[in-house]
Structure formats: structure tokens, C-alpha cells
From TrEMBL:
It is found in: Cytoplasm. Belongs to the Fur family. This is Ferric uptake regulation protein. CDD domains: Fur_like (cd07153). Coiled coil: none annotated. Keywords: Cytoplasm, DNA-binding, Metal-binding, Repressor, Transcription, Transcription regulation, Zinc. Homodimer.
Amino acid sequence: MDTKQKELNITTIKEVLRQYLQEKGFRNTPERYTILEEIYNMEHHFNVDDLYLLMMQKKYHVSKATIYNTIEIFLDAGLIRKHQFGEKTLTSSSYEKSYFDKQHDHLVIYKKDSDKEIEEIIEFCDPRIQGIKEAIESAFGVTIDSHSLYFYGTKKD
């Protein structure tokens, strides 16, 4: 993505956050926008510890509690998505930006001979999954708004 598009995206998500905070009656703090911008500049999944370390390295004065509270706001506002990849970390939830992303699924590859230490996460989109979703909607008379699909494994030798 080019720099101009990235700047437009950041402007858009900041406006989404501003409207959300106003609608919910939450305070409009600069820390929330800074955290949001850092997330949207990332190119990978992250957890709270990753984000906190990044913020500290960049000399932002923000507590881990503020990050946790802000993450909850971003989840509710639809700006990020939460994942449980099954990794063994202090904070077991991972997150990714979601406002501009299309639905996709994940292949979680663990390091061999490790206790669920993630080597790589591959995002993929397979059109056959859309067909399965439509079949489920038809069979059960429902509308599926979203889904999550995870495959877990290790690389073959």
C-alpha cells in the first residue's frame, strides 16, 4: 500500500473512532488515536505485550491498562478483530486491524518441538468456504454475519 493510501486510511479510521467515542459518550483522548495509528501501521497480528513494547520503544507514555481498555473500545467499534491462536504467551489473545480487511481465515504454524510457539501465521481466502457458508445459511435458515476458521499444524520435514 502506498503512503498516500495509508494516510487516507489512518484519517478514515480516526474519524470512525471519533464518531464511535462521541456516540458512546467516551472521552476523546489523544492516547486512543496514537494507539490506533500504531496498530494500523503494523503489518502483522499483535498482542497487548507487543503493542505495549512498541509504545514504550517510541517513548509514548501509556500504561498497559490503558492499552487493554483501548483494545476493548476498538473491538466494539469494529476497528480490530480478536483471535485465539492457541499460542503460549502471557496474553493469549492476538489482534489484527480489521476496518479495511476482507474476511479471511488463518493457518497457524507452530515451531516443531515447541509448546505451541508460533512460527508463522498465514492468512488465506478460499472461495469454497463462501460456498459452505451459503449452504449452512440455506440449511438452517440463518444469515451468517462473520466466521473464523483456524487450521493448526507444523511444517513437514
